[in-house]
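Thread: quick sanity check before group meeting

JM: Hey all, I'm pulling together slides for Thursday and realized we never actually wrote out the predicted structure for the chain we discussed last week. Dropping the sequence here so it's in one place. If anyone has concerns about the input, flag it before I start.
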Amino acid sequence: MGRIREDILVDGRNCWTLFDSGARYSYIARQAATGLDVRHLPAERSTSLGGRVHKVTDVCLVFADVAGHPLEFQASVIDEIGVDEDGKQIEVLFGAIAMQLWGIRLDLQNELLDFSQYTTDFVEF
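JM (edit): ok, ran it. Output follows.
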């Protein structure tokens, strides 16, 4: 498991993002989801994140540009994700499922995102 932090473009806005291979799902802070395609869930669910239990009532389809790579992913909308080690507010948590889908790996030694497996062509069997 590892974590890398960097800005991504979401709807033309910079969002401070934590790429976390230890988190299965992706999340977006409610404020960062303003103006995006947010949909209300038919049934509330909960998630445990950052030592707190969060109620999830909405999900969001996020269209983003990550280091020049266009992609989209689903994120659960929560009130607040938390702060990183430097005290900076995290706006998006990019989880393992989205990283796997797009072929993004974490180069922890160099603290970089590895796009060597990035793809926009999906083959289904």
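AS: nice. The chain has one domain: 3-114. The first strand starts at residue 3 and ends at 10.
JM: adding both to the slides.
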